[in-house]
Each structure stands twice: as structure tokens, then as C-alpha cells.
Structures
1.
Amino acid sequence: MNLITPKSGANVDIGTHGCNRAGKPSLEIRARPLLGVNIESAGTQNLLSSEEQDRLLHDATLLTYRRGGNTLFTEGQTANFLFVVDQGIIRINRYAENGRRQILAFRVAGDLFGLPENGQYVDSAETVGPAKIYRIPWHRMQLAMLAEPQIQLHLFIKVVDDFRQAEHRIMILGQQNTCQRLASFILDLRRIPEFFDEERSLLKLPVNRFDLADYLGAVPKSSERAFARLESQSLLRRVTARTIEILDISGLQRLQHERWRDHR
Amino acid sequence: MNLITPKSGANVDIGTHGCNRAGKPSLEIRARPLLGVNIESAGTQNLLSSEEQDRLLHDATLLTYRRGGNTLFTEGQTANFLFVVDQGIIRINRYAENGRRQILAFRVAGDLFGLPENGQYVDSAETVGPAKIYRIPWHRMQLAMLAEPQIQLHLFIKVVDDFRQAEHRIMILGQQNTCQRLASFILDLRRIPEFFDEERSLLKLPVNRFDLADYLGAVPKSSERAFARLESQSLLRRVTARTIEILDISGLQRLQHERWRDHR
DNA sequence: CGCCGACTTGACACCAATCAAGATAAGTGG
DNA sequence: CCACTTATCTTGATTGGTGTCAAGTCGGCG
């Protein structure tokens, strides 16, 4: 998920020169760029000119979903479209051969998804809540990519960014226990204004316990225990099932980086 | 690692049309393509014309390492080069803040590595054994990418492929126990002729126990236990420390996909 | 032949998955 | 506004997997 973006997507540079204006790699949540560009207000430095942007969005359809549970595509379908999130949150699933689901990533505003493999999607994408999604035909996209290297380059940068996110997940799944994974997740969510009320330090969880567990690579019971433990350590407080109050951010960060996979 | 390539790199297609000649996604190890092209013998369908290939390799340096333990680059260094493996095996490391190492991937012939982020490498790369590596200056690469969309497209495809590998690791680390992870690793290694003697069913492990553990996201003791268990189930036999005899491939595949994270 | 590094294993404590059942909140109709 | 239904969240007890620490064994190389 881009929640775990090591750095802002717009700041990726594929070479040693260019627009590496951001500085240190930090756990930043990217804002809402469409291929590096904010759609409504071209706020920060544009990676695509507005003409290029218009040309891309010209062939795009804006899909609006009022609630969660809608399937945008499933594994094995012919991949006709590339998707870009405008609003809301999307989960990218894959099922193991034994039927167990893994949520590979959550996608939020500015993220793209729907990369095909041999012309087919290799995972499924579903809305988690209300969402607005841009849908761009792949054949248009391919033409644009070949015709305009700049556009391709920005798509390239996005994919490199997703690759980094995946590597970050590997780090987390490879060496953190459920508590630490939950802490990482919470700290990531904290960076999204849509979910975090900084005033009251209240975080609204956008996903249910099953999604959370499948994202953390655990069983619902374990993620529940992780909540209980973080609460017992006064790092957070469960207000309602879907709302938590973050009590100790630095404590969460400390836990996240502790050597051992749980130490009590 | 590309050992866990869901499919051959050369078969990736970014759209719904094009060269999707391979068919079903299968756990194939890609051969030895340089950006989708075999260097010596242009065997299967070339993705790059030989001129394009020559142009790329014109600026490349061939680095030759006689033994393992050489560092090609480390985290934080300015990223001046893109690397492509010709022979041997490279490990891509990243260290968590607590100092624990995670091996994100192993790279073998045909794989590329050294993608920068803000102009810097975000992980380190070291030779595991003797290796030959092509080193291409990034500024040349960037010029070529902008000047020739075809070249950029093939680099793009490679990165998408690496992204899929990373997702596959997420699946494994998210829902398999150490035994299953080891089985997956062994089954992947089996596809590389350099390490697997199909006649005698002997597999030569290219990495030591520490590397293996850091790759599996475990401690050496656990990976050792995993070996012991696979041996007790007659799935393999430890001949020497670095050589195993594979006894039951389908048994390993069955174990790999078992529902529970270990069932005995 | 003997040293050294790498692999291998034992005992202990802890974390995580299973199963099933109870508690809480949200949505619905009277 | 209240009772009901339903979905979701939450919790004990048991079994087995995994990290820690330290000690033992094997193989290769001089």
C-alpha cells in the first residue's frame, strides 16, 4: 500500500539528476498526484504538463462507487484498463492456492493499479469504501507511452515507487511480529488526513478486522491481540471498533523498530 | 529474487495485445535475457533489436568478480549506474533500523538492479559467488530512455517483472511458515541449471545459512529446523551442508501450498 | 594431522493459529 | 423510541512453531 511509501511518489527520480528536491527518504504519504500530478489543483511541481495530463484524462472514465465491496477486476481477467485512484481506498488481493487471501496493498488517492501480466490481471481489486477511480484504456496508454517518452517515464516512476512499497512490505513481513506490523500500519494511516484527526489524535480505521488481518499476514485473532497489547502498553486506546486514539506516537515508532519480534 | 519469478521476464506484456506468447502464468525461471534479450545467442524472440542492444552495451562496463563478498554499492550511495547480471548471483540487502538484515532478493543472470531513489541507492548489492556484471551509466540510460521509447518500454517491463517478484515474496512471507518458505526457495533454485543437477537430483545451495535465514525472514536456527523437518518427511536429504538431494518434488509443492503455516 | 569456520542441535520461553462462543454496535421495522 | 436481527468485533484455552543462548559436530584447508 502506498501507506507504506518510503517516500513521496512525486519525488522519485530515476537518475542522479532531475527533480530530487525532497531530500531524505522518510516515511511520507504521497499526496494525491495523478502520475505525479495533483488533479484538481496543480499544487507542487508538475511532472506532467497540463496538456499531457489532459491528453491522458481525455480517454479516462471516472468511476464513482458509493460503498465498499465493489470489484474493479479479478485475477485472470483480460486487462483492458489502467486505474488511478482519485478518492477512497482500494484493496489489492491475491489468493494462494490453498485459498487463503493476502492483501498485497491498499491503494489511495494518486496511486495507480491494474498492471497486466501477459494481458491479464494477476490480482483482484475491490473498493473498501466509497471511491472515485479513473479508468484509462490500456491500448491508449500504450500508444501514449510509445509516442511520448515523458509520459512513459512518469508511469515508469510510479511503478518503481510501487516496487519500493513492495520491498518495504517485505521488510515488515520478514522481520516484524504482528504487534509491530500493526504499529507500522497505524503509523502509516496517520499520515492520511482523511483518516487521522490530528486535533484529537483520533484515527479512523478504514478497514475491518478481516481485511486488516489479511493485510498483516495474520489471523483476525492475532491482530486483535496486537490491539490489546498496544492498548495495555498505553500506546493507543480503542474508542470504538473502528476508531482508535493514538496516545504515544514515539512509543509506536520505538516498538516498530525493536529488535525482537515481540518482547512484551 | 528472480528465483521466485511468477513468469518469465520476456513474456511480460504491458497491454492486452503484443507479444503475450507464453500463455498461463507459471513459476518459470527466466533464462538469461539482457533486457529481454539473450546476450550471446539471440535465441528466442528479441525484444530489443541487436542495434538497440549494441547501443546499450556500448556504454556498459563488464565487471568480473572472482569470489563472493564484493560490494557493488551500498545504501545511500549516489546511484550512478544500472547493473545487469551476466553470470553469478547477487544479493540485494536492506537493513532495518534495529540493524537486522533482510535479503530482499537474489539476482541471477538477466536480472537488473540498481534502481535509484532520489538519485541514491536504497539498498546494497553484494556478490554471493563469482559473478560477471554489466554496469551501465544511468545518465546514458536516461538519455536512451527518453530518446527511444522502445528501450524505455523494455526497462519498464523489467521493473514490472521485479514488482511481481516482490509481490510474490509478500505472499510467501505473509502466509507461509519457515518450512514452506524453504520449500519454495528450493523449488525456485531447482529451475536454475547452474545449481541443479537434474540427473542425480542434487541441488547445490549457492548461499550460506545466514544468507538463507535472512532471505527467508528467519534466524539460522529456524531454517535449520526447516531442513531437518523436510528431511524427516523424506522430501529431501542433506548430502553436505551446501548440497541437498531432492527426493520428492511434488511433496515439496504440496507442502508449499498447505493451508496451515505448518502442520507437521 | 590439527585448526578454524560453518553447520547442527538441545532446552526454555514466548508468540501465533485454531475453535468456538460471548459481547458490542449498527441497521431495520414496528 | 424501542426491541429485534445481523454483522462485526472480542475473548479464553490448547497446541505447535519460532527466537534466544549456548554447546556440540562436521568439513575443508593449510
2.
Amino acid sequence: MTIHEVAARAGVSPATVSRFLRGQSVRSPEAIRAAVDELGYWPSAAAQSLKSGRTHTIGVVVPDITNPYFAAVVKGMESVTRTENYRILLANSDESSEREDHVLADMARRVDGVILAPATERDQTPLKLRDSKVPLVFIDRDLMEGDEFDAVLVDNVDGARQAVEHLLGLGHTRIAAINGPPDTTPGRRRREGFLAALTARGVGIAPEHDLIGDFRESSGYQLTLSLLSLPEPPTAIFTANNLMTLGALKALHDMRVDVPGRISLIGFDDLDTGPLLRPPLTVIDRPMVEQGVLAMRLLLRRLDPQYVDDIPRRIVLGVKLIDRASTAPPKGQHVPPPRARKARPA
Amino acid sequence: MTIHEVAARAGVSPATVSRFLRGQSVRSPEAIRAAVDELGYWPSAAAQSLKSGRTHTIGVVVPDITNPYFAAVVKGMESVTRTENYRILLANSDESSEREDHVLADMARRVDGVILAPATERDQTPLKLRDSKVPLVFIDRDLMEGDEFDAVLVDNVDGARQAVEHLLGLGHTRIAAINGPPDTTPGRRRREGFLAALTARGVGIAPEHDLIGDFRESSGYQLTLSLLSLPEPPTAIFTANNLMTLGALKALHDMRVDVPGRISLIGFDDLDTGPLLRPPLTVIDRPMVEQGVLAMRLLLRRLDPQYVDDIPRRIVLGVKLIDRASTAPPKGQHVPPPRARKARPA
DNA sequence: CTGAAAGCGCTTACAG
DNA sequence: CTGAAAGCGCTTACAG
């Protein structure tokens, strides 16, 4: 089923069919339309790509599609590709730079652009993409040398600061952090914000309370166990992403630790089940679907020759604390004056 | 950067470079290897596809990637494409047949095969795919005329039966169901299993307890609200998927209904947060990642000319009940003899 | 507006 | 094992 058959049936040349299909005005649109419909003709994407150099496909590389944050982000992206005649080639990097390298090299000749949440800030392959003229937009995570790329990020430092201020306000002083990998943007920046906020208020942090996880649930679980086994466990834990928060909560449940009675827990990123958990989680929330939408818009814009040389757009979204029930004043601590807590959302 | 430049640099013809790249033995492999590496050559996917008729890409169409079940399924699929030099073109149908039609028509000329969870059992476009020789594998959901396709499904009837037996065993007799759309396989079959199990035990169901949702969280929420407003509300609710279970639980929380004290809740599909919810959810669990793996293997097998005409494989996996804490004997009911409950998983 | 023709970058049957 | 050549199915500059 090729354009030639359609042309023959409609009594015109393939060139005319092609023109009709791309919306140019032709002499016998009805005949061509009819031929296309009757034959059920659909152009070959491979042939079109080969000719035009455009695939109308966007590569999306995320660490883990089963992380609800990235699932939401991808959904946001698709909501814009849908109306723009683009499609998404999806790959997981599993938080591995090596895997990411393979995927990006493979995508380079198959897509018009890539949206990437890099496994680490030091990944080199993304820079090569630029050399081969494949536009790249970062989401959630940045590159060390990322300033020259479009990006959609959030204010990680401020998020961690809000979490710390919240805990300090409740009277906590022994606060632990389960951070992400220091070579990722959210791992590094959230830890920076955490430490800075503590320092700013003159509160110290024990080295054994400053832990590094890998953003996976199991590391949240293990590191929480290790915190609980300390001679002097913290009275509050800040977890740097949703999956590690879940791991921490599981560990606290398994060890029969009352939350927030004995330990308060506050995590970065909300979950669909956040309000339903035991206890409902206090979290730092950020736009998710919206980030995907913005990143895809940035990329599609960059594909337009008119904007290809615009200076990079670096979008940094704000985050906000959702105060539910997993944080409370530390046990045996003087309870600070009551403050308004948001009611549980209806 | 084409194969001609590599050929020139290596002092051979493009044909020889092509042969080397596909693993055939050639006279000067080192020179070609060097030229490829120095030039950073990567073949044009479009040109290869046009020539070979193969895209080495698989289309995956799911109702909603933010549903943790489908996210896990997609992850399973990717774990097999990864080692087989295939990639995934992902699209959401948003539970809409119309949207699915668009997506499938678009994919037909871009992929070697499609894995689909159809929006309804009556969708027609999948049948057209077959006519255009694009292999199709169903996952989670089937088509009315689906017998001629490979499929990976679960025993929905048995799952619903297990849920009902469990509730009956606890002493419930006023059991409501929040079903999925009757034109989807899981919507229809889970309801059939539910009604059949009740009937088999001689327990009736009030029409107002037999509800139809749309698999979205909001419908679980709304329908639970409507159940609560009944003069005689049920003492137990069976929800036909994970998202509606969450919606139901939110409604029960918001209306301050004690679970399982006043109403027991059992849902189809487990959640990562299942054990952490308030209360921990009793659910019908099924393999998720594994279903994705199986579906992709089926499809890749079908792509092999050797198996293209094999009879369709219809894989039906078993499901099992995970007994946590959202179900209990109805209030004021005679408590049946104690039965072993599984301990909360560690 | 239209058609003949060239060419996008590969792969492969063919002849050597 | 190798190379010249044809051809996959489109799009588009060119001439009319």
C-alpha cells in the first residue's frame, strides 16, 4: 500500500497525492480523498522520516516509570504530544548512567528531541546529543554543564528548607535526613537545603543522621532501620523522595515505631495515597503533570527553526508543604504554642 | 554522517560496511571498526526501516500509565525489549476507544507489533491491525473477537470469587460491588465472578449494591458515597480495581466510616502502599511486572517468521488474596470461628 | 496546479 | 569476500 497506488486510483501523480496529504490545494481533492479512504492508505513513517529528516517522535528517558512522579510527568508530556502530532519513545535508565548512555545513543537517530532526567549530573552522553544537534530538555534533574539546555526543575533547596523549618517549629532538634545520591540534582540540592536550613538556625546534625540513599524504596527502608538502631535515634526524619519515604514508613511500621508519636516523618514528593497512609503523610509537594507539560512544550518549541537558537529556558517551579499528620512535636518536648494546621483535605 | 563516509574512510564500499555492521565476516574489520568509532557513526533508523520493513519498535497502548498496575506492566515489557534490541512507543488511551483508534492507526506504520489493553471489548481498530499484518497481543483486557490473538490475562472470575468467599466467610451478607465498565474484560468478568459466587452460596444482592464505575479513582469515591447514603448500606464493598479502591477508601475516610469496623473493603489489585494504608488493604493480587514480560515475549516470538502462524497463545494467570486488615466480620454479627490470618508481611 | 525525476541512507541479490 | 546497482516509499525543487 503505497502512495503510488493511491495516485493510480485517483488518476493523479504521487506528487499530487503527497501535496494533498500535506494540505496543499490540488485540483481533484475529492478523488484523492476517496482513493485514500478506500485503500485505507497511511503513509510510511520510515519513508517520510528518511526524506524529511524528522521522525515526529520524542525520546523520554526517566529513571523509573513505576515511580508515580515520573508516571505523572510522562502523562503530562503525552497530553501535549497528542495535539501536536508527536509520539513518545519511552525508556527507563534504572538510575544507571551506563544504561542511559545506551538508550540515548540509540535514540539519537530515532527521535527529533529528548527529554531526560539524567541518572547523574556528570553524565557525558547528553552532551554528545547536543553535538549531534538533537535538542535536549532536562526534567527533575540537571547536568553539571546543563546551563546550555532547556530545563524544568523545582526549588529543591527551598523544599528541604521548608521541611526543616517545619520540624524545627515543632521543636525537633535531632533531625535525620535520608538523602538521594549526591551526584543527582535532587540528591545534592535537597541535602544542601537541609543542612543550610539547620545551620541557619544554629542546629547541628550528627554525621550518622546525614545518610545517603539511592531513591529506591529499599534504601529508605534500610537506612531507617539503621537510624533506629542508633544509641540516640533522631526524633524526626526527612526523606528526599517519595519511594524512600515509603521505605522509611514501612521500616517504622515493622519496628512498631509510633509515627509521629516517637518519630516524625516528612518526605519530598506527595503520593496519590498520601492522605490515606497511616499516618497521613506530611510532604513537600510539587507540580508533577505540569512539569511534564512544560518540558514537552519547551522541547517542541526548540524544534521550531524559529526558536532553535533562543537562549536556554530554565524553569524552576516552587514547592509547598502539605501539612498532614506524620509530623508532631517530639515526645517529652515542650509543646510549642498551637499553630493552625490545615484540615485534612475533603 | 552516512555509511558512505565510513566506507570512504575505511577504504571499502558501503555494502561492506553494512555487512560488517550486521556481523558478517569481512576482510578488514579493524579498519571499518576504527572508521565507525572515529566518526561516531550510527545508522539511520529511518533508512534501515525503509529497506527492511522492520522498525524494531513495539507500540504499547494502555489506558493510563499513572495506574501503578500499568506502570509495572510497562516496566516488565521494557526489561525484555532491552535485551532484544527493541524499543517502546508508548501511548495512553485514557480509557477511550476513540483515542485508541487514533493511536493504533498512527502506530500501524511505525511499529513491528502492538501490545494493547483495549478500552473496550468491542473496539474495532485492533482487528484492522491484524488485516495490515501487525501482530497484536492483548494484556489485562481482551476483545470480544480476541481469540485469534495472543493474550496475557488473569483469572478475573476466580479473583472476584475469592473476594466474595472471603467476605462471606467473615459473615457478610450485604455486600456491594463497585465494578468496572461492563464492556471491558475486567469490568465484565469480575462482576460475573462476583455475582456467581454470591448466587452459588444463595446470597442475594440488592440492585443498588451492584454499581458500575469507570476504573478511575473519582468513580470509586462517588459510588462509595452513594452506597453510604443508602437506607441500608452494605457491610462490605468489593472494588474492581486499584484506583477505585483508593477512591472508596478516601470516601470512607472523609465520611468518618470505620474500616473494617463498620464497612469492610476488599479491592482487586494490590498497591505498593497497600500495607501502609489505613487500614492495610485486603486485596486480590496478581503478577504485574511478569504480565508485561510475558506479553512482550509473546509478541517478539510472533515477530519471528518461524512462529508467525502458530496458534494464538492465551495465557491466563492465577490471582491470590492477600489478607490484611481492611476486612473483618460485620458489626453486631456473630463472629465466625477464628481463622488463621496471614501476619503482616515484614 | 501538475508531473517527472532526483535523492534521503540504507540493504541485498547479483555478478565477479 | 567484495562492489555496483537497484530499490524501499516518500517529498520537493524544477520545469511546464
